[in-house]
Amino acid sequence: MRAIYLLTLRQxxxxxxxxxxxxLAAMPVxxxxxxxxxxxxxxxxxxxxxxxSAMLAGAIAPLVVLAIGAxxxxxxxxxxxxxxxxxxxxxxxxxxxxxxxxxxxxAAPFIVVSALLTSHVAFLGDATATMAITVSALAxxxxxxxxxxxxxxxxxxxxxxxxxxxxxxxxxxxxxxxGVRLLSIRHYSIALMHGLDPRRFASTTHLSLGxxxxxxxxxxxxxxxxxxxxxxxxxxx
Amino acid sequence: xxxxxxxxxxxxxxxxxxxSVVAVSEVSFDVAPGITGLLGPNGAGKTTLLRMMxxxxxxxxxxxxxxxxxxxxxxxxxxxxxxxxxxETVYGFMxxxxxxxxxxxxxxxxxxxxxxxxxxxxxxxxxxQHRRMDTYSRGMRQRMRLAATxxxxxxxxxxxxxxxxxxxxxxxxxxxLLRELAAEGxxxxxxxxxxxxxxxxxxTVLLIVNGKLAASGGFRxxxxxxxxRPYHVRVICDAPRKLAAAxxxxxxxxxxxxxPDGAIVxxxxxxxDLQIELPRLAQAAAIRLRRVEPxxxxxxxxxGYLVER
Lengths: 237, 309
Prior knowledge:
Largest sheet of chain B: 6 strands, mixed
Helix content of chain A: over 70%
Structural class of chain B: alpha/beta
Number of helices of chain A: 9
Structural class of chain A: mainly alpha
Strand content of chain B: 25-35%
Shape of chain A: globular
Strand order of the largest sheet of chain B: 6-7-8-3-9-10
CATH architecture of the largest domain in chain B: 3-Layer(aba) Sandwich
Helix content of chain B: 25-40%
Number of strands of chain A: 0
CATH topology of the largest domain in chain B: Rossmann fold
Distance between the termini of chain B: 31 Å
Number of helices of chain B: 10
Order of helices and strands of chain A: HHHHHHHHH
Radius of gyration of chain A: 18 Å
Oligomer: heterodimer
Strand content of chain A: under 5%
Shape of chain B: elongated
Largest sheet of chain A: none
CATH class of the largest domain in chain B: Alpha Beta
Largest interface: A-B, 24 and 27 residues
Number of strands of chain B: 14
């Protein structure tokens, strides 16, 4: 498993990919610095809604994870090196888990550092708020990674489908149709953030901390199982 | 069948179709230790068959067993199996040794560095092992892939077009190595679309044409079957009518007809005799032969004949 983990880290840490991730991750920090130093600085609720809920949880995190997670398998399927892995005496979960872990390892620092810096600027070092934002961002990374790693195994158009999902499902539907929030990774992440620091964040979600945690675990496990099942049943190119 | 005589690989009534296209149809055979050649023209279904034999692809019907166990969704069996696909499944950013070492780790090899040393020495690439693989020639990449395939000392080797991209020297080295591996008691299945390539290596041949098993057995039997097939031979000479009349009397000739352009087309089921008799006859009748050419000597037509028999 260690060999697959290290291999995936090398495969996914291309110079251009890292550069794009860095630019994306820097955006919330730049927005925080620019908006909070003006005379018309937004309120905590406004800032949380626009920067943390919409920008970081709804756009930056899924985009960063999509670029890394979908490629974890999709690149290997495309250049047919996946046969090197599936022709080894490893159970399929022993291939899926290190790939997923490598995707999380690479994506998490970008999102976590972005969340840490942004919340530090916005909440002037409030440790509880910073912890809530960082933990929820990390949970979002893990959930998106599980979904996109599976997607990379299912379709050769994983990036396109992932982008459509981020924009249409997470961006549009989950923002306007309340029932969709029960099936939205972005809203699980927001619910975790609100639940971990209810003092700072007035909860606008329908999910309690306990329910959000339980659903997150179910969704994560579900996508991992789907990926393992797919790898067992697919025709390997 | 006792355990001692059980085949190493058994392909039993295997078919594979993609939508309405049948890639492999009702193929059955057993593979024993030694070198078995899977021969057939491009697009015959060899790769699909090999992919099912290695468990990479599912069968639409039928079963493939290795050492009596199903190959599909059975990872532990890969400890005993080495597979080299026709595609260059290497990571260009890795050095040759790194690649072989990683493959050894994936296969769960003990004494890792010793095994890597042995495998790389076996393919004669020790000098290039610390170079990135994207700087290798195609033949070198193939050899390093073979090292990675051999690193866990598998009992079975399945090689899809392994000599592709190899230069003549590498080809000889490769052939020598495969013979050596077979002599150690391994079971080797290699595919090729080149008749001579398989003839030089394989003791047993499986002929695949249009997804069907056209013939199987020793190479001599296959060769004999090929020599008995009817050949069309086109002859251009300075006296076609005179030659046609004379040729019609030969035992080796089944039919003769004249083309509108003046050439004679001879149908023969004994082309080896015809090769001797035709020049003799022309010389005796003072006829000058300008051109003698087989009309259906492509590999596809040879294989096609075997399917239609």
